Amino acid sequence: MSYLTIENLNLELGGKMILKDLNLSIEKGQLISLLGPSGCGKSTLLRGISGLNSIKSGKVMIDGRDITKLAPKKREVGMVFQSYALFPNLTVADNVAFGLAMKRIDKDTVSKKVAQILELVGLEDKAKSYPGELSGGQQQRVALARSIVVEPKVLLLDEPLSALDAQIRKQLRLELCRLQKKLGITMIFVTHDQEEAMAISDRIFVMHNGQIAQEGTPSQVYFHPSNEFVAGFIGNYNKLNKEQIERLFGPLIEEGSTYALRPEAIEFTPQDDAVSVVGQIIERHILGNVVRCTVQTQYGTLWVDRMNQGQAVLNDLKDVTLFIRQEDVVTLHQ
Amino acid sequence: MKKMNRFIITLFVAFMCLPILVTLVYSFATEWGKSILPSGYTLKWYAQLYQDPQFLAAISRSLILTVVTLAAVLVILVPSIALVAIYLPKFDHLFKPIVLLPYAIPGVVLATGLMRTYTNGLVPLFAVLSGGLFIYSLPFMYQSVRSSLQEIDGTRLMEAAEMLGASKVYAFIRILLPNIKIGIMVGSLLTFSAFFGEFQLTNMILGGDFETIRIYMLRVMKVNGHLSSAVVMTYLILLVIISALIIKLTNMNRKRSSMMREEAAFKPIVKGSPAHELLNH
Fold first, then answer.
1. Residues in chain A within 8 Å Cβ distance of B269
2. Distance (Å) from the C-alpha of residue B124 to the closest C-alpha of chain A?
3. I want to staple A198 with a disulfide (CB 3.0 to 4.6 A). Which of A161, A218, A263, B275 is the partner?
4. At residue A165, what are phi and psi to the nearest 5 degrees?
5. What is the distance between the alpha carbons of residues B140 and A69, in angstroms, rounded to a whole number?
6. In a domain, B263, yes or no
7. Strand order in the sheet with A258-261
């Protein structure tokens, strides 16, 4: 049986239905991501699980216990907010100790646990500092420590890294991932950044219009997007219609109306079982380690990604032949 | 241009300070009517004032009225503002125009309304006056507490405290109040000055039965200009002292900078350290 189960969850905010008949289940000790664009309901789902927003109908179960109607403090759920929500009037140590004090744990145990967790997040020397004296990354570590130290059954993280600059964000997400594995905490991480979700998650739940559009491991979601929305959100897929696909491969393909093709699956060199398509490179964009070429073909415009190894050939190339394998084509559902 | 600016500012400051300066000199003057400067200086007006039991009683009444009403404002109004801002935000758009109403209602209308409703003897007039002043404090308190709450993102702080197991009351007292202290102080300061110098409501509701410093000042003004100048100066100094006290208390709040930007990396966990113990628990 799953550790966290959500059944037919409906949640309304200001007269508008935000989450519609949502179902979701998570295993213990997993780090899962709720991925989706702004307004898709991912943060609302987190607030529904935490009890900060009351749900209209449905059920939330953690470890076999129905927590649907419990107050937030009785749910044994921790939360890290996007804005950190550290208490400005308390020191780092007091912030971390706050949840333990609420559990009426004796002072010695509290001090010991606070020292342990602060060392774990690398802030043992900041125990006496106030939140206002810390950088954004350090504040986020304190927020994380404060939520972890009370040993919640599930830790919810609401876009915890989005206020940080790119470099620190990348560093922190890996550290967060390591920490989750070390402590074996069940975490639900909300993000709109597909790269972030891919990098840290055991499973990804892609959300769209208050529902789960697809769930799976990062590989499953990336290589086999099940519908147009996921293909559009998770990667820069080439979208092809049925007519284009039939002209390329004949009428053998799985029934569907829209098909997706990863830009990196298209090759410039001959491949086994691949069909060839003649085209012209009309644009090149260097995206760091990848060069994205826009190729005009008789089947429409296609994006082709190649590793950026400074190839002069690629830079000078104009007329190209593309090689596309049928097995790389993914059928999308509406 | 700079010189011109300085001149205008100096002129403005002189214009603002001159009446206070003249009042100060007048309160020390033996006589000042037929000459440019006073004919002599004396402390007798102050001596006479401070020996007048009616003056001391008026000051005490003003202080009691102000402190009692301010205490009621702090105990009732501050939690109400926080409650609406955090838990009933959709009513905030109703709350806002209501609290601004005292700006629009003339004191005479409020006083008449209060007297019509409450002069049946059931409610003590002091309580009616205090209630009237309470209404007058709404705009000051609301604006300063509301903006403090917005600044610290009070809703998120309360949610974080509740998620960590705190009750709403505990979270309000332990987390919210200390962080909106500045807003409360500023609101209190404005309210204090307004209450302490209030005349219209007090005069209409209680009048001569409850002579506050402002009513005393008006009475003395008709009798002796020098004496009334001494009252004005005493009143002003008292307000400055109380304001300075409140500002001092506000500044005692630890100043924290957010200048530090270096990132402490996660350090390797050393065997035998507290974190090592936690991981191997």
1. 119-120
2. 41
3. A218
4. -75, 160
5. 39
6. no
7. A238-241, A258-261, A329-332
Give the pLDDT mean for A115-120: 91
Check CB contact of B209 with chain A, cutoff 8 Å.
no
B277: chain A residues, CB-CB within 8 Å:
116
Tell the burial category of A137 from Cβ atoms under 10 Å away from its Cβ (0-12, 13-18, 19+). Answer: buried
Q: Which domain holds residue A38?
A: 4-232
Task: Mark which of A232, A263, A288 sits at the end of a domain.
Answer: A232
Find the helix or strand (DSSP H, E) in which A157 lies. strand A154-158
- Using one digit for the tens of pLDDT, what is the confidence trace for B189-245? 888 888 888 888 888 888 777 888 888 888 888 888 888 899 889 988 988 888 888
Residues A61-82 have a mean pLDDT of 92
pLDDT tens sequence across B172-186: 999 999 999 889 988
Tell me how far apart the alpha carbons of residues B27 and B50 are, in angstroms, rounded to a whole number.
13
DSSP letter for A126, please. Answer: G
| Contact: A135, B260; criterion CB under 8 Å | yes
- Is residue B115 one of the residues assigned to a domain? yes
Among A174, A207, A232, where does a domain finish?
A: A232
CATH code, domain carrying B87: 1.10.3720.10
Looking at the fold, whether A51 and A166 belong to one and the same domain comes out as yes
A156/chain B closest Cα distance in angstroms: 11
Residue of A nearest to B266 (CA): A122
Residue A253 backbone phi and psi in degrees, to 5: -70, 155
- Tens-digit pLDDT profile for residues A233-247: 887 889 888 888 888
> If residue A275 lies in a helix (H) or strand (E), which one and from where to where?
strand A274-286
Task: Give this complex's ipTM.
Answer: 0.85
Identify the residue whose tokens are 């209680």. B206
CB atoms B275 and A116 under 8 Å: yes
Q: What's the CATH code of the domain at A86?
A: 3.40.50.300
pLDDT reported for residue B278: 58
Domain match, A167 and A219 both: yes
Q: Nearest to residue A157, comparing CAs of A200, A120, A220? A: A200
Comparing alpha-carbon positions, the chain B residue that sits nearest to A88 is B179
Nearest-CB residue to B263 (from A79, A133, A168): A168
* Chain-chain contact of B263 with A135 (C-beta, under 8 angstroms): yes
The secondary structure element, H or E, covering residue A315 is helix A312-316
What value does the mean pLDDT take over residues A185-194? 93
Q: Which pLDDT band, with edges at 50, 70 and 90, does B256 fall under?
A: very low
Q: Give the Cα separation of B231 and A252 in Å (integer).
A: 101
Q: Tell me the whole-structure pTM to 2 decimals.
A: 0.80
